Amino acid sequence: MSTTDIEQELTTEQQAVVDAVNAAAAATTAEMSDQEKYGVQFDHGLAWVNFPVGDGGLGVSTSLREFAADQMTKAGLQPPPRGSNTIGFGMAAPTIVAYGNEEQRAVLRKIYTLETIFCQLFSEPGAGSDLAAVATRAVRNEDGYLINGQKVWTSSAHNADMAILVARTDTEVPKHQGLSYFLLDMHAPGVEVRGLRQITGEAEFNEVFLTDVQIPAGYMLGEPGQGWKISNTTLNNERVAIGGGNPREGGMIAQVAKTWRDNPEYRDPLLHDELVRLWVEVEASRMMSERLSQKLAAGQPGPEGSGAKLAFATNNQLLSGLEIALSGVDGLRYDTYEMRRPVEHSMTGRIPGYRYLRAKGNSIEGGTSEIIRNIIAERVLGLPGEHRVDKDVAFKDLPK
Ligand SMILES: Cc1cc2nc3c(=O)[nH]c(=O)nc-3n(C[C@H](O)[C@H](O)[C@H](O)COP(=O)(O)OP(=O)(O)OC[C@H]3O[C@@H](n4cnc5c(N)ncnc54)[C@H](O)[C@@H]3O)c2cc1C
Asked: Domain Acyl-CoA oxidase/dehydrogenase middle: where (predicted)?
Protein backbone atom coordinates (compact mmCIF):
# COMPACT_ATOMS: atom_id res chain seq x y z
CA MET A 1 0.00 0.00 0.00
CA SER A 2 1.48 3.39 -0.98
CA THR A 3 1.54 6.48 1.27
CA THR A 4 -1.14 8.04 -0.94
CA ASP A 5 -3.43 5.05 -0.35
CA ILE A 6 -2.96 5.36 3.40
CA GLU A 7 -3.73 9.08 3.27
CA GLN A 8 -6.86 8.48 1.24
CA GLU A 9 -8.27 5.81 3.55
CA LEU A 10 -11.28 7.31 5.33
CA THR A 11 -12.63 6.38 8.73
CA THR A 12 -16.24 5.16 8.89
CA GLU A 13 -17.32 8.58 10.24
CA GLN A 14 -15.46 10.45 7.49
CA GLN A 15 -17.05 8.17 4.90
CA ALA A 16 -20.51 8.99 6.34
CA VAL A 17 -19.74 12.69 5.89
CA VAL A 18 -18.52 12.21 2.32
CA ASP A 19 -21.63 10.16 1.45
CA ALA A 20 -23.91 12.86 2.93
CA VAL A 21 -22.08 15.60 1.01
CA ASN A 22 -22.41 13.67 -2.26
CA ALA A 23 -26.12 13.03 -1.65
CA ALA A 24 -26.77 16.69 -0.76
CA ALA A 25 -24.84 17.88 -3.83
CA ALA A 26 -26.92 15.55 -6.04
CA ALA A 27 -30.16 16.88 -4.49
CA THR A 28 -29.21 20.55 -4.97
CA THR A 29 -30.11 22.38 -8.16
CA ALA A 30 -29.09 25.82 -9.41
CA GLU A 31 -32.77 26.90 -9.53
CA MET A 32 -33.23 26.46 -5.76
CA SER A 33 -33.36 29.50 -3.47
CA ASP A 34 -30.59 29.80 -0.87
CA GLN A 35 -33.09 28.79 1.80
CA GLU A 36 -34.02 25.62 -0.10
CA LYS A 37 -30.33 24.79 -0.56
CA TYR A 38 -29.70 25.18 3.19
CA GLY A 39 -32.75 22.95 3.82
CA VAL A 40 -31.21 20.19 1.67
CA GLN A 41 -27.96 20.43 3.67
CA PHE A 42 -29.88 20.18 6.94
CA ASP A 43 -31.90 17.19 5.74
CA HIS A 44 -28.68 15.38 4.79
CA GLY A 45 -27.17 15.94 8.25
CA LEU A 46 -24.66 18.59 7.18
CA ALA A 47 -25.93 21.52 9.28
CA TRP A 48 -23.83 20.45 12.30
CA VAL A 49 -22.50 16.95 11.70
CA ASN A 50 -22.03 16.20 15.40
CA PHE A 51 -25.77 16.61 16.16
CA PRO A 52 -28.01 13.52 16.10
CA VAL A 53 -29.54 12.23 12.86
CA GLY A 54 -32.85 14.08 12.30
CA ASP A 55 -31.58 17.23 14.06
CA GLY A 56 -29.42 18.36 11.14
CA GLY A 57 -26.52 16.07 12.03
CA LEU A 58 -24.97 12.68 11.38
CA GLY A 59 -24.12 11.83 14.99
CA VAL A 60 -20.37 11.85 14.22
CA SER A 61 -17.69 13.45 16.40
CA THR A 62 -17.42 17.23 16.68
CA SER A 63 -13.83 17.13 15.40
CA LEU A 64 -15.24 16.29 11.94
CA ARG A 65 -16.91 19.69 11.55
CA GLU A 66 -13.92 21.14 9.73
CA PHE A 67 -13.61 18.04 7.53
CA ALA A 68 -17.32 18.38 6.64
CA ALA A 69 -16.89 22.08 5.84
CA ASP A 70 -13.96 21.26 3.50
CA GLN A 71 -15.92 18.52 1.77
CA MET A 72 -18.91 20.83 1.32
CA THR A 73 -16.71 23.53 -0.22
CA LYS A 74 -15.18 20.99 -2.62
CA ALA A 75 -18.68 19.86 -3.66
CA GLY A 76 -19.81 23.47 -4.22
CA LEU A 77 -22.23 23.46 -1.26
CA GLN A 78 -22.34 26.90 0.33
CA PRO A 79 -23.41 26.86 4.01
CA PRO A 80 -25.47 29.80 5.37
CA PRO A 81 -23.53 32.78 6.75
CA ARG A 82 -23.43 32.06 10.51
CA GLY A 83 -23.09 35.77 11.27
CA SER A 84 -26.70 36.30 10.16
CA ASN A 85 -27.89 34.10 13.07
CA THR A 86 -24.96 34.04 15.50
CA ILE A 87 -27.06 33.31 18.57
CA GLY A 88 -29.18 30.75 16.73
CA PHE A 89 -26.10 28.81 15.59
CA GLY A 90 -23.74 29.35 18.53
CA MET A 91 -26.04 29.35 21.55
CA ALA A 92 -29.68 28.36 20.87
CA ALA A 93 -29.04 25.29 18.66
CA PRO A 94 -26.62 23.43 21.00
CA THR A 95 -28.86 24.15 24.01
CA ILE A 96 -32.03 23.04 22.21
CA VAL A 97 -30.39 19.87 20.98
CA ALA A 98 -29.23 19.08 24.54
CA TYR A 99 -32.51 19.84 26.36
CA GLY A 100 -35.31 20.28 23.81
CA ASN A 101 -38.13 17.79 23.23
CA GLU A 102 -39.05 16.66 19.72
CA GLU A 103 -41.43 19.57 19.14
CA GLN A 104 -38.88 22.16 20.29
CA ARG A 105 -36.10 20.61 18.21
CA ALA A 106 -38.18 21.30 15.07
CA VAL A 107 -36.86 24.88 15.19
CA LEU A 108 -33.29 23.66 14.46
CA ARG A 109 -34.02 23.42 10.74
CA LYS A 110 -35.33 27.00 10.67
CA ILE A 111 -32.25 28.24 12.53
CA TYR A 112 -30.04 26.68 9.87
CA THR A 113 -32.09 27.97 6.93
CA LEU A 114 -32.08 31.46 8.54
CA GLU A 115 -35.91 31.51 8.64
CA THR A 116 -35.83 31.93 12.43
CA ILE A 117 -33.30 34.43 13.78
CA PHE A 118 -32.60 34.10 17.52
CA CYS A 119 -31.58 36.53 20.25
CA GLN A 120 -30.59 35.87 23.86
CA LEU A 121 -32.71 37.39 26.65
CA PHE A 122 -30.43 36.76 29.64
CA SER A 123 -28.95 40.07 30.94
CA GLU A 124 -31.02 42.49 33.00
CA PRO A 125 -30.23 45.85 34.60
CA GLY A 126 -29.49 44.01 37.88
CA ALA A 127 -28.35 40.67 36.46
CA GLY A 128 -25.32 40.69 34.17
CA SER A 129 -22.28 38.99 35.68
CA ASP A 130 -24.60 37.69 38.39
CA LEU A 131 -27.00 36.01 35.96
CA ALA A 132 -28.62 34.06 38.80
CA ALA A 133 -30.09 37.39 40.04
CA VAL A 134 -32.56 37.46 37.09
CA ALA A 135 -35.79 39.14 38.29
CA THR A 136 -38.01 38.74 35.20
CA ARG A 137 -40.94 36.68 36.43
CA ALA A 138 -42.60 33.75 34.72
CA VAL A 139 -45.86 32.95 36.51
CA ARG A 140 -47.74 29.74 35.75
CA ASN A 141 -51.31 30.18 34.47
CA GLU A 142 -53.70 27.88 32.66
CA ASP A 143 -52.29 28.76 29.22
CA GLY A 144 -48.64 28.33 30.19
CA TYR A 145 -46.55 31.15 31.68
CA LEU A 146 -47.07 34.90 31.92
CA ILE A 147 -43.80 36.84 31.59
CA ASN A 148 -43.08 40.29 33.03
CA GLY A 149 -39.71 42.03 33.27
CA GLN A 150 -36.93 43.91 31.49
CA LYS A 151 -33.89 42.62 29.64
CA VAL A 152 -30.92 44.65 28.37
CA TRP A 153 -27.94 44.49 25.96
CA THR A 154 -29.91 42.06 23.78
CA SER A 155 -27.90 41.78 20.56
CA SER A 156 -30.03 41.54 17.39
CA ALA A 157 -33.38 41.66 19.25
CA HIS A 158 -34.56 44.07 16.53
CA ASN A 159 -34.07 41.34 13.88
CA ALA A 160 -35.06 38.35 15.99
CA ASP A 161 -38.03 36.02 15.55
CA MET A 162 -37.35 33.89 18.64
CA ALA A 163 -35.39 34.24 21.87
CA ILE A 164 -33.83 32.04 24.47
CA LEU A 165 -35.03 33.45 27.78
CA VAL A 166 -34.12 32.91 31.43
CA ALA A 167 -36.89 33.92 33.87
CA ARG A 168 -37.73 33.31 37.52
CA THR A 169 -40.48 30.79 38.22
CA ASP A 170 -39.89 30.46 41.98
CA THR A 171 -38.93 33.18 44.47
CA GLU A 172 -39.19 30.93 47.54
CA VAL A 173 -35.91 29.11 46.84
CA PRO A 174 -32.28 30.41 46.60
CA LYS A 175 -31.56 32.35 43.43
CA HIS A 176 -29.85 29.60 41.41
CA GLN A 177 -32.72 27.17 41.98
CA GLY A 178 -35.73 29.30 40.99
CA LEU A 179 -34.90 29.93 37.33
CA SER A 180 -36.43 28.33 34.24
CA TYR A 181 -35.43 28.40 30.59
CA PHE A 182 -37.86 29.27 27.80
CA LEU A 183 -38.12 29.81 24.10
CA LEU A 184 -39.99 33.04 23.36
CA ASP A 185 -41.73 34.28 20.22
CA MET A 186 -40.33 37.80 19.73
CA HIS A 187 -43.45 38.74 17.73
CA ALA A 188 -45.80 37.90 20.65
CA PRO A 189 -47.95 40.74 22.08
CA GLY A 190 -46.21 42.51 24.98
CA VAL A 191 -42.64 42.25 23.60
CA GLU A 192 -41.19 45.74 23.06
CA VAL A 193 -37.69 46.26 21.62
CA ARG A 194 -35.86 49.60 21.99
CA GLY A 195 -32.46 50.18 20.37
CA LEU A 196 -29.45 51.17 22.50
CA ARG A 197 -26.67 53.13 20.86
CA GLN A 198 -23.15 51.96 21.64
CA ILE A 199 -19.65 53.51 21.49
CA THR A 200 -19.34 52.73 17.75
CA GLY A 201 -22.54 54.67 16.95
CA GLU A 202 -24.37 51.46 16.07
CA ALA A 203 -27.42 50.12 17.88
CA GLU A 204 -26.43 46.48 17.64
CA PHE A 205 -28.16 45.68 20.91
CA ASN A 206 -31.40 46.66 22.64
CA GLU A 207 -33.50 46.94 25.76
CA VAL A 208 -36.39 44.48 25.69
CA PHE A 209 -39.50 45.09 27.79
CA LEU A 210 -41.75 42.10 28.47
CA THR A 211 -45.25 43.04 29.63
CA ASP A 212 -47.80 40.28 30.22
CA VAL A 213 -46.28 38.13 27.49
CA GLN A 214 -48.08 34.80 27.32
CA ILE A 215 -45.85 31.77 26.62
CA PRO A 216 -47.35 28.33 25.97
CA ALA A 217 -46.22 25.71 28.54
CA GLY A 218 -44.57 23.76 25.71
CA TYR A 219 -42.06 26.60 25.28
CA MET A 220 -40.20 25.71 28.49
CA LEU A 221 -36.92 23.90 27.84
CA GLY A 222 -36.26 21.13 30.38
CA GLU A 223 -38.01 21.22 33.77
CA PRO A 224 -39.07 24.14 35.99
CA GLY A 225 -36.04 25.19 38.11
CA GLN A 226 -33.47 23.82 35.63
CA GLY A 227 -32.80 27.29 34.16
CA TRP A 228 -29.39 27.81 35.77
CA LYS A 229 -28.03 24.46 34.60
CA ILE A 230 -29.39 24.92 31.06
CA SER A 231 -28.17 28.52 30.75
CA ASN A 232 -24.67 27.31 31.67
CA THR A 233 -24.79 25.02 28.63
CA THR A 234 -25.62 28.13 26.57
CA LEU A 235 -22.87 30.23 28.17
CA ASN A 236 -20.20 27.55 27.74
CA ASN A 237 -21.15 27.27 24.08
CA GLU A 238 -21.20 31.07 23.79
CA ARG A 239 -17.62 31.33 25.05
CA VAL A 240 -16.45 28.68 22.61
CA ALA A 241 -18.42 30.40 19.80
CA ILE A 242 -16.88 33.80 20.62
CA GLY A 243 -13.38 32.54 21.38
CA GLY A 244 -12.75 29.97 18.66
CA GLY A 245 -13.10 29.44 14.99
CA ASN A 246 -10.55 31.51 13.03
CA PRO A 247 -8.12 29.87 10.62
CA ARG A 248 -4.36 30.66 10.81
CA GLU A 249 -3.87 34.40 10.27
CA GLY A 250 -7.65 34.87 10.20
CA GLY A 251 -9.82 37.44 12.02
CA MET A 252 -8.17 40.55 13.48
CA ILE A 253 -4.53 39.40 13.06
CA ALA A 254 -5.17 39.14 9.29
CA GLN A 255 -6.26 42.79 9.22
CA VAL A 256 -3.25 43.94 11.19
CA ALA A 257 -0.73 41.88 9.20
CA LYS A 258 -2.20 43.33 5.98
CA THR A 259 -1.95 46.87 7.35
CA TRP A 260 1.71 46.17 8.25
CA ARG A 261 2.46 44.87 4.75
CA ASP A 262 0.59 47.74 3.02
CA ASN A 263 2.10 50.63 5.02
CA PRO A 264 5.93 50.41 5.07
CA GLU A 265 6.17 54.12 5.96
CA TYR A 266 4.73 53.54 9.44
CA ARG A 267 6.90 50.56 10.38
CA ASP A 268 9.40 50.75 13.21
CA PRO A 269 11.21 48.06 15.25
CA LEU A 270 8.97 48.51 18.30
CA LEU A 271 5.78 48.05 16.28
CA HIS A 272 7.40 45.07 14.55
CA ASP A 273 8.15 43.43 17.90
CA GLU A 274 4.58 44.04 19.02
CA LEU A 275 3.18 42.57 15.80
CA VAL A 276 5.30 39.43 16.08
CA ARG A 277 4.44 39.02 19.78
CA LEU A 278 0.70 39.27 19.04
CA TRP A 279 0.96 36.98 16.02
CA VAL A 280 2.45 34.32 18.32
CA GLU A 281 -0.26 34.92 20.97
CA VAL A 282 -3.03 34.58 18.40
CA GLU A 283 -1.47 31.43 16.97
CA ALA A 284 -1.18 29.92 20.47
CA SER A 285 -4.82 30.71 21.20
CA ARG A 286 -5.87 29.30 17.82
CA MET A 287 -4.18 26.03 18.75
CA MET A 288 -5.87 26.13 22.16
CA SER A 289 -9.25 26.46 20.38
CA GLU A 290 -8.30 23.60 18.10
CA ARG A 291 -7.60 21.40 21.13
CA LEU A 292 -10.85 22.55 22.71
CA SER A 293 -12.89 21.53 19.69
CA GLN A 294 -11.29 18.09 19.93
CA LYS A 295 -12.29 17.97 23.61
CA LEU A 296 -15.82 18.93 22.60
CA ALA A 297 -15.87 15.78 20.52
CA ALA A 298 -15.65 13.82 23.75
CA GLY A 299 -18.64 15.53 25.40
CA GLN A 300 -19.94 18.94 26.50
CA PRO A 301 -17.87 22.14 26.34
CA GLY A 302 -16.25 22.71 29.73
CA PRO A 303 -15.01 25.82 31.53
CA GLU A 304 -11.79 25.62 29.46
CA GLY A 305 -13.71 27.48 26.71
CA SER A 306 -13.39 30.49 29.00
CA GLY A 307 -9.63 30.55 28.32
CA ALA A 308 -10.23 30.88 24.59
CA LYS A 309 -12.78 33.67 25.15
CA LEU A 310 -10.41 35.57 27.47
CA ALA A 311 -7.51 35.30 25.00
CA PHE A 312 -9.78 36.39 22.13
CA ALA A 313 -10.90 39.55 24.00
CA THR A 314 -7.38 40.49 25.17
CA ASN A 315 -5.77 39.90 21.76
CA ASN A 316 -8.53 41.72 19.85
CA GLN A 317 -8.14 44.84 21.98
CA LEU A 318 -4.33 44.84 21.64
CA LEU A 319 -4.51 44.12 17.89
CA SER A 320 -7.09 46.82 17.16
CA GLY A 321 -4.87 49.32 19.04
CA LEU A 322 -1.81 48.22 17.04
CA GLU A 323 -3.78 48.55 13.81
CA ILE A 324 -4.50 52.21 14.66
CA ALA A 325 -0.79 52.80 15.36
CA LEU A 326 0.11 51.19 12.01
CA SER A 327 -2.41 53.28 10.08
CA GLY A 328 -0.81 56.70 10.73
CA VAL A 329 -3.16 59.68 10.55
CA ASP A 330 -5.78 57.56 8.75
CA GLY A 331 -6.15 55.57 11.96
CA LEU A 332 -7.69 58.62 13.61
CA ARG A 333 -10.50 58.94 11.06
CA TYR A 334 -14.00 57.56 11.57
CA ASP A 335 -16.45 56.69 8.79
CA THR A 336 -19.97 57.31 10.08
CA TYR A 337 -21.43 57.92 13.49
CA GLU A 338 -24.98 57.64 12.23
CA MET A 339 -27.11 55.36 14.41
CA ARG A 340 -27.40 52.12 12.45
CA ARG A 341 -29.26 48.88 13.31
CA PRO A 342 -27.06 46.27 11.62
CA VAL A 343 -28.28 42.77 10.80
CA GLU A 344 -24.85 41.57 11.88
CA HIS A 345 -21.76 43.38 13.05
CA SER A 346 -18.61 42.86 11.01
CA MET A 347 -15.18 43.57 12.52
CA THR A 348 -13.60 43.38 9.08
CA GLY A 349 -16.22 45.27 7.09
CA ARG A 350 -15.33 48.73 8.38
CA ILE A 351 -12.36 50.96 9.19
CA PRO A 352 -9.68 50.47 11.92
CA GLY A 353 -11.35 53.10 14.13
CA TYR A 354 -14.55 51.05 14.17
CA ARG A 355 -12.63 47.88 15.07
CA TYR A 356 -10.82 49.72 17.87
CA LEU A 357 -14.08 50.88 19.44
CA ARG A 358 -16.03 47.64 18.85
CA ALA A 359 -13.26 45.50 20.38
CA LYS A 360 -13.91 47.21 23.74
CA GLY A 361 -17.11 45.18 24.00
CA ASN A 362 -15.23 41.90 23.48
CA SER A 363 -14.16 41.83 27.13
CA ILE A 364 -17.78 42.40 28.30
CA GLU A 365 -20.04 40.39 25.94
CA GLY A 366 -20.38 36.68 26.74
CA GLY A 367 -19.08 37.30 30.28
CA THR A 368 -16.57 39.94 31.39
CA SER A 369 -12.87 39.12 31.55
CA GLU A 370 -12.98 39.45 35.37
CA ILE A 371 -15.71 36.81 35.59
CA ILE A 372 -13.88 34.57 33.12
CA ARG A 373 -10.76 34.80 35.31
CA ASN A 374 -12.89 33.80 38.32
CA ILE A 375 -14.17 30.77 36.39
CA ILE A 376 -10.66 29.75 35.37
CA ALA A 377 -9.44 30.18 38.96
CA GLU A 378 -12.28 28.20 40.52
CA ARG A 379 -13.26 25.57 37.97
CA VAL A 380 -10.04 24.98 36.04
CA LEU A 381 -7.30 25.67 38.62
CA GLY A 382 -9.40 24.53 41.60
CA LEU A 383 -8.62 27.61 43.72
CA PRO A 384 -11.01 28.47 46.59
CA GLY A 385 -14.32 29.99 45.42
CA GLU A 386 -15.56 33.53 46.03
CA HIS A 387 -17.34 34.09 49.33
CA ARG A 388 -21.08 33.90 48.51
CA VAL A 389 -23.41 35.06 51.25
CA ASP A 390 -26.62 34.71 49.21
CA LYS A 391 -26.23 31.07 48.23
CA ASP A 392 -28.76 29.61 50.68
CA VAL A 393 -31.18 32.55 50.99
CA ALA A 394 -34.60 32.48 49.26
CA PHE A 395 -34.63 34.94 46.32
CA LYS A 396 -37.59 36.86 47.82
CA ASP A 397 -35.55 37.54 51.01
CA LEU A 398 -32.46 38.94 49.24
CA PRO A 399 -31.91 42.71 49.70
CA LYS A 400 -32.88 44.41 46.40
C1 LIG B 1 -21.54 43.95 22.68
C2 LIG B 1 -22.35 43.27 23.75
C3 LIG B 1 -23.35 42.38 23.40
C4 LIG B 1 -24.13 41.76 24.37
N5 LIG B 1 -25.12 40.90 23.97
C6 LIG B 1 -25.92 40.32 24.90
C7 LIG B 1 -27.02 39.49 24.49
O8 LIG B 1 -27.26 39.30 23.29
N9 LIG B 1 -27.82 38.96 25.43
C10 LIG B 1 -27.58 39.15 26.75
O11 LIG B 1 -28.33 38.59 27.55
N12 LIG B 1 -26.56 39.93 27.19
C13 LIG B 1 -25.72 40.53 26.28
N14 LIG B 1 -24.69 41.34 26.69
C15 LIG B 1 -24.55 41.62 28.12
C16 LIG B 1 -23.33 41.01 28.78
O17 LIG B 1 -23.44 39.63 28.88
C18 LIG B 1 -23.19 41.69 30.15
O19 LIG B 1 -22.91 43.06 29.90
C20 LIG B 1 -22.10 41.08 30.98
O21 LIG B 1 -22.46 39.80 31.43
C22 LIG B 1 -21.70 41.96 32.19
O23 LIG B 1 -22.80 42.27 32.98
P24 LIG B 1 -23.10 43.78 33.41
O25 LIG B 1 -22.99 44.63 32.21
O26 LIG B 1 -24.38 43.77 34.19
O27 LIG B 1 -21.89 44.19 34.39
P28 LIG B 1 -21.77 43.95 35.95
O29 LIG B 1 -22.14 42.54 36.25
O30 LIG B 1 -22.50 45.04 36.66
O31 LIG B 1 -20.22 44.12 36.17
C32 LIG B 1 -19.56 45.38 36.24
C33 LIG B 1 -18.07 45.15 36.47
O34 LIG B 1 -17.85 44.46 37.73
C35 LIG B 1 -17.12 43.26 37.51
N36 LIG B 1 -17.60 42.21 38.41
C37 LIG B 1 -18.89 41.91 38.69
N38 LIG B 1 -18.95 40.85 39.55
C39 LIG B 1 -17.66 40.49 39.79
C40 LIG B 1 -17.03 39.46 40.59
N41 LIG B 1 -17.77 38.59 41.29
N42 LIG B 1 -15.67 39.40 40.59
C43 LIG B 1 -14.91 40.28 39.86
N44 LIG B 1 -15.44 41.27 39.11
C45 LIG B 1 -16.78 41.36 39.07
C46 LIG B 1 -17.42 42.88 36.05
O47 LIG B 1 -16.44 42.05 35.51
C48 LIG B 1 -17.43 44.26 35.39
O49 LIG B 1 -16.14 44.70 35.09
C50 LIG B 1 -23.90 42.01 25.75
C51 LIG B 1 -22.88 42.90 26.12
C52 LIG B 1 -22.12 43.54 25.13
C53 LIG B 1 -21.05 44.50 25.57
From this structure: 119-212
Q: Which residue among 124, 202, 204, 238 is the active-site one?
A: 238
Q: How far is CA 245 from CA 29, 106, 162, 177, in A?
A: 30, 26, 25, 33
Ligand 1: which residue has its CA nearest to atom 24? 128
3-state SS, residue 210? strand
Digit-coded pLDDT (tens) for 332-373 = 899 999 999 988 878 878 899 999 999 999 999 989 999 999
Give the strand pairing for 162-168 and 118-121: parallel
Give the nearest ligand 1 atom to 198 CA.
Answer: 1
Read off φ and ψ for residue 189, nearest 5 degrees. -60, 140
Alpha helices in 113-218 (DSSP H): none
CA proximity to 88, closest of 183, 23, 19: 183
How far out from the chain centre does Cα 278 lie? Answer: 24
Q: What confidence tens digit (pLDDT) does each residue in 157-166 have?
A: 999 999 999 9
Active-site residue, 9 included: no
For residue 1, pLDDT beyond 60: no
